[in-house]
Amino acid sequence: MTDQAYTFAYLDEQTKRMIRRALLKALAVPGYQVPFASREMPMPYGWGTGGVQVTAACLVPEDRLKVIDQGADDTTNAVSIRRFFARTAGVATTEATAEATLIQTRHRIPEQPLREGQILVYQVPIPEPLRFLEPRETETRKMHELEEYGLMHVKLYEDIARHGTIATSYAYPVKVEGRYVMDPSPIPKFDNPKLSGNAAIQLFGAGREQRIYALPPYTAVVSLDFDDHPFTASKPGHACDLCGAAHSYLDEVITDDAGGRMFVCSDTDFCAGRRREGHQGRLGGQA
Amino acid sequence: MIRIENLSKSFTLHNQGAALIPVMAGASLHVAPGECVGLVGQSGAGKSTLMRMVWGNYLASAGRIMVGATDVASATPRQIIALRRDGLGYVSQFLRVVPRVPTLDVVAEPLRVCGVPQDKARAQAARLLARLNIPERLWPLSPTTFSGGEQQRVNIARGFAYPYPALLLDEPTASLDAANRAVVLDLIVEAKTRGAAILGIFHDEAARAQVCDRLVDVSAFTPKAAPEAAA
Amino acid sequence: MTQPQKATEFSQSIRGAVAPLLQVAGLAKSYGARIGCTDVSFDLFPGEVLGIVGESGSGKSTLLSCLAGHQRPDQGQILYDGQDVLAMAETERRRLSRTDWAFVHQNPRDGLRMGVSAGANVGERLMAIGARHYGDIRAQATDWLGRVEIDANRIDDRPAAFSGGMQQRLQIARNLVTAPRLVFMDEPTGGLDVSVQARLLDLMRGLVRDMGLSVVIVTHDLAVVRLLAHRLMVMKSGRVVEQGLTDQVLDDPQHAYTQLLVSSVLQV
To answer: Is C202 close to B101, i.e. CB distance below 8 A?
Structure first.
């Protein structure tokens, strides 16, 4: 199956070792951004070059790979990356969260709780949570070093001043084990609670910015907030129109030109699984 | 209270060929608590120079200037600031204030720096301004726009706001009308009565006669010898 | 109100009952062969305002940046509240500069965060030291805008929408919100209209007195130091040529350079 023109999982062995060393350091210092020598990958920046390199460094032939983009297994980005590794590593693939040993994700954490032994690899566009207010890399590094994180609250303050509530709804900043402030990648803040105490290994790769960071299993992750404006993992106030799930993250889908719309689980595997079990939402029969 | 001993002063003008100009030598005088001593002498004899030296505004070249327990001639800046805070008051001929500050607060400030709460300090300031016939409608305005006589009265109010044990008065009654002149002389007498030692310059002879217990002619302190002797 | 107490503290301090807040000894900084400043020594006591004057290139700004920790001096010692600032860990020094110290830049754009609202600018130092109650932070920001005479309804506007004088007052509010004890000011009235300068001077004088602030203010404007500073240091070519009581140095200058400086000011 493996395309013999490439080494296993596309990257050469030395590169994978370099990335693994960065990953080990990242796991040893949860939330700390480890620089790594990001390679050119056969895809544009912004399409998951960081995640792909981390995945390549972690894959072993026995792995079963799942790739999701905004929760869906069947979008172009997800399909392309899955095929890429099927071809270059010859690993088995799956769409079932429970069956996967390694899941590469863009912008979601699967609804089904992960278990020990699984690895979740996030694609990260901008790893530096302080970048919004402090453009100097030298200064943000110093701020991490000295735990000067007041600026993160300045950002949240601006949100409340402008919108009456913390309007940041994705890439919501978190503090890891009471030490490093971390950007959880652009997952919806609905997913933030799943970051904490997760049984799986969570790895974050930013290709363009050349940074890797990580959360080892069962790491405590707290979303930043104010005492009088506490963090809430909000989502649209609907149930899934297909499977009826009331506590999953939903996508809004426009269905016609007359303002018709439906809400469906963004996690396609989760939604399909529920429907197989017989759950039905408002439009469950028709879709 | 004020005791000046063998005081001398010369100016060195570095930008005019380092010219050394002796202006005072061997000045000695004292002012007891409750006493008012007037400085006299022709214009240029050094009355204002002496006054400024007591205030710490001009450095003494030699000698002693005791005000209370402080020797102004050898004191550090901080000691002089402490003295000016609650030991020595000065009514100069010129009002120098931050523009925009209301007259009431200009007068209250000497009390405020001594820790008197704002309302009490303002109440005392209001009493003095009223006594000196500054119309109440002017109190919220900055004195920088006032007439010369009004500024002079604001300056006097400011100088008498705090009960300093020693006071320097430089022409306090100049450019005042008869009514206000009488108020100022009353203030001086009251200060003497509470025990203040006052050193003043009064060109107004009637005023001088009314408040001064003694006169000192500063012409006696004018250096007579060659410049070398003064240095 | 703590004002009378602050004033009492000052009264004690000028009587020598209180230790100096800042002690500087033998400070020197060179740029290669060129002297930035050298042999600078002074003590600054609680509640005291020290003015530093001199022409451009006299070393006054170099001195200020060494004192504030923006540059490291080559020689000398700086003690703040008895602690050796130059031997301090960077964490500790940066914590000081966010809490006990403040720095007011000549150009408010250097001291403000132009991308966030006035309220966030004032609140930043509070959040930096751990304030986590939005309502409290906002209430304190509102209070401080009032103290620097900025209308409370401008709290959500960005500083870019403010005039130069308002920006400078906002910068002062942002710096003073944590009730610092030591404030460094670099030409705080430079670049402002004269009428705006007067308002700022009045404001600063009131804050210095009411909060018992110790201030080191660098300026080339002798009128500013006459109104604000208790003591004055005159610098030329990196050296202190004269220091003393402000009005004494201005009215009876002893050094040739100070005499030239004072006599060069245009009278109005």
So the answer is: yes
